[in-house]
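User: structure tokens for mitogen-activated protein kinase kinase, please.
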Amino acid sequence: MAAVVRKRRQLNLHLPLPAAKSSRFSSSPLRLPLPLSLPYNNNNSVYRVSDFDKLQVLGHGNSGTVYKVQHKRTLATYALKVIHGDCDTTVRRQITREVHILSITDSPYVVSCHGIFEKSPGGDISILLEYMDSGTLDNVLKTTGTFSEVSISNIALQVLNGLNYLHKQKIVHRDIKPANLLVNSKMEVKIADFGVSKMMSRTLDSCDSYVGTCAYMSPERFDPDTYGANYNGYAADIWSLGLTLVELFVGHFPLLPPGAKPDWASLMCAICFGDQPTLQDTSASEDFRDFIKCCLQKDSTKRWTVMQLLAHPFVNQRPI
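Assistant: Done. Predicted tokens:
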């Protein structure tokens, strides 16, 4: 565990960020190492940042702000994610990675990207995204309370379909959690925020395990020798999904007592040394409890895959 301790400062504990600075935008295309010419949209026409009016702030993220914006001519609504030009090199690498993944993904279960802009070389980076009018599942949980089992089954099915698409493209998300799952008023759920995702190549163990939000990391990301001979990013996404679904059902992060303030040490101990997480609520169905058990196997080699979970009765017999 010594190696884990040495790297603890690299973990993202999802601490609150200060308010973002205001900024103005220009229409310069993004100058990042991407496989296509940007900005772009699904209609093959060029967008400029000046084409949009900012309506409100939707939230603050990692060195940036997300705005609700409206196209001046069409009145179409989008979300505009703005990363400040003075962000550090780590954040800029993450946004480069996110831009690349968004530019090559096309799934109804993954948030759509409609354009990417850079104010000037090294300046603010803006990503024009599909607008999901109900925000994140984290916001919905905090404002309206816990989800019913039927709703969670529908959420699980949609996220699994999204992960199935991503994993087939050899993309590991590495940060599945309520705050990274967007939802609209139709209860359509889409995976978002690919800043710490990974494009897998020849080997799985080339994937750096010390990224993402610490609370939702799987045991093998802390201690691969004990919980998985080789770090498997695909299996780690399943663990994070399992914790997310339990949180939506019980209303709090499931590995710590309600109201407990998370810190790196308590989270690591709970994940690595605690008992296998289970859904203990007696109101949950047997299918739901079994589904969570399949997601939260501490040994990554025993954890179910996306395809196995898609055949599980908890999601397989329930339409979206």
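User: Anything notable?

Assistant: Residues 15-130 form a domain with the Phosphorylase Kinase; domain 1 fold (CATH 3.30.200.20).
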